[in-house]
Each structure stands twice: as C-alpha cells, then as structure tokens.
C-alpha cells in the first residue's frame, strides 16, 4: 500500500497579522481596535473581511504524512510554537524529503501565505521554492508550477484550472459521501486562538486535511494511479488509523453516516 513518493496532505489556519497591518496602515491601536480597523479597511478595499495574503499570520499547520509504512496526522500550533517556529518546522520537511504536496487551494493561498511569512521572518526555504535555478530537473516540476503533480492543488485541478469552475472543499467532500466541515467554518479560528482552544483549532485543521486526503484518493482512482482494490485498502487503513485518534471520533462517526449517501462510499465501513 504505497505511492511512488511520500505524500504530504496539508492545510494552514491563519488570523490577521496585526503587527504587519499596523505597520502598513500606520495604526497606533490596541489589538482589538486594530483588528476592527483592518477589517473595515479591507471591506472598503474589496468588500470582504478576508485579509490580503501578506496580512495573514499562521497559527496552525496540519498535515497527513504518508511514506512507506508511515501514516500520521500532525499539527503545529501557537500553543507550543511561535509562528516562526511553525514555519521552520514545515520548511525543514523539504530539506529531508521531496514529498508530493496535496492541498485544497494551496497554490493560491497556503503556499503564498507561507512564502510571505517566511519573507517576513527572513527564513530560507530553497527546496520548497526552487524553480530550476539550482536544479534544472525542477524547472518545470516544482511546488509552484500549477500544471505538474509535485503540488496537487485539488481545487485547481478539479476546476480544470478555471476560476469560474472552483468549488468549496466542504461541498465536494459532502457530495462524494465524506463529512466535510460539519457546520464548522474558518470564522471560528480567531475565537479558537483568542480563547486558547488549541485542540479545537488543530482538530478543525486536521479535519480539512482528512477531507482533502479522501478527495485525493478518489482523484487518484479517477486518474488510474490506484485501482479499486488499492482505494479500498487506503480507505480501510484511514478508518483503522482514525480509530486510534480520539480527537477525531466525531469525524469518524460523521463519515460513517455521510458514507451512506453514496452507493460507492456505502462500502467504506463494510
């Protein structure tokens, strides 16, 4: 039960980078007032509260690592690490391994945010941002290249690289018989951080990772990179693993229920 290369399915969670926002707009305000001011400025700029890419602060990176006999969820949050340390830990993966990255909207959001925040802290990440200057083999097959599988951004791929066709992970996961976000949205992230609810934060982020992984398995099946029996093995392996992860008992139960909505996924728990 192995892919040809290690696979890293990942997701990040962010809040508004108040220090950078204060610097950009010359705001001499408390955190709460600065947050409100930045949201108002953003609404005036674009009609949305969602910050510009350089004004995101990474509070959590979660991933699912699949390599040979290893199958493991992990999360780094600001409960234990500074933002800089979280970024360093993520970047260090690529100095040791060259996994296939899998994400949902990672090419347009997650990796650009990681890039901007790495620039902010003066970090170096040559393996992650290599574009063929030092390794000619990565000139066209690198983590930034939109059309090659070293980074498979499922949102982009399933949309045919056409923004008009973009779908939400929550919608696609539910249509395919998986749990989706289960009524929880990214708007909870700031409250989780403010109230130090770190387990809620990491569980939410890991839930997105798990949904992305399940959609990725279906994509690999569609493309013929794995066969029906291999897909069934990976589903069984994922369920077996989640049975050991108490923080995802609700995800597993919701998956059991949602799987009944599709003839294909109804077999997941047989």
From TrEMBL:
<dbReference type="Pfam" id="PF10108">
    <property type="entry name" value="DNA_pol_B_exo2"/>
</dbReference>
<protein>
    <recommendedName>
        <fullName>Predicted 3'-5' exonuclease PolB-like domain-containing protein</fullName>
    </recommendedName>
</protein>
<dbReference type="GO" id="GO:0003676">
    <property type="term" value="F:nucleic acid binding"/>
</dbReference>
<dbReference type="InterPro" id="IPR012337">
    <property type="entry name" value="RNaseH-like_sf"/>
</dbReference>
<dbReference type="InterPro" id="IPR036397">
    <property type="entry name" value="RNaseH_sf"/>
</dbReference>
<feature type="domain" description="Predicted 3'-5' exonuclease PolB-like">
    <location>
        <begin position="48"/>
        <end position="255"/>
    </location>
</feature>
<dbReference type="InterPro" id="IPR019288">
    <property type="entry name" value="3'-5'_exonuclease_PolB-like"/>
</dbReference>
